[in-house]
Input
Amino acid sequence: MIRLIAIILLLLYALPVMAHEVRPGYLEVTETVPERYQVLWKVPMKGDAVLRMSPLFPETCKEQTPPSSRAVAAAMVKKWTIVCAGGLKDAEITIDGLQHTLTDVLARVTHSGGTTQTVRLVPDNIVFTVSGEPSTLEVITTYLSLGIEHILLGIDHLLFVFALLLIVQGWKKLVGTITAFTVAHSITLAAATLGYVNVPQAPVEAVIALSILFLATEIIHMLQGKTGLARRYPWLVAFIFGLLHGFGFAGALSEIGLPQSDIPLALLFFNVGVEVGQLIFVTGVLLIGMLLKRLFTQPLRWGEIVITYVIGSVAAFWTIERVVAFAT
Output
């Protein structure tokens, strides 16, 4: 149990740092007229440091206008125009330097006829071939994997779900609670992504951290024999805070971007990916819980207390950090 707690402590402090390294880069290549392309390249920043990677186009492509750069929301955005003799169909584009990072890159090529290709590049695969026709399967697999990756690397979202698992007892309540959380964040994810609702991202992130702190407090009250709101109505708490978490997912998706010709499909499978990742996490936690019950016949109450205080401490730190970030 001591080793398990040590591992949890390491993960809680290591994953937030890692999360900054795995924010995706974004390449958008739009054909404005035949053989002429507008390029938008967004690469993650950490402080003033920019990840050293850049797109490489075929030798048939020449810059028509020099790149203009500006820093936007922890990313460096560059725009320029290129002219490619014969166009980019069947040509290869490489993200140089991606192989030396922990991140990935979402690349989108839009042809003058309106067809769009979307691919996801990773350190082990830094080259893609531009196709002439869009692939529905490419959109599905790209956004499905992005959704899974986002939830599994989103330590704040996982901590919220983990805290719910510590509070809820019984399969029926658990299913109802997870379903309420899923429905809620699906609603706000779709509403925010499609532009029906616009909520500033910084306050949302602060309230998400506050939601974890609230659940940690509820767990401590539960261990003291008190019955709080989360214990009585876990589905209601999950639904209310799930709406906020949905805005958080939408913020991440807005950084990635959606293919204009396949917005509903991409949004659907990003959300499906989030649910798949959430299911993987919940299943893993439940299996570990069952294993611990077999290994230890007596409940390790002190272990729950330590883990809860760790969760609460991290959530309190995030809350203060995020409030200060947008208030100053």
Notes: The beta strands are 25-33, 36-46, 49-50, 54-56, 61-71, 75-84, 92-96, 105-110, 116-121, 127-129.
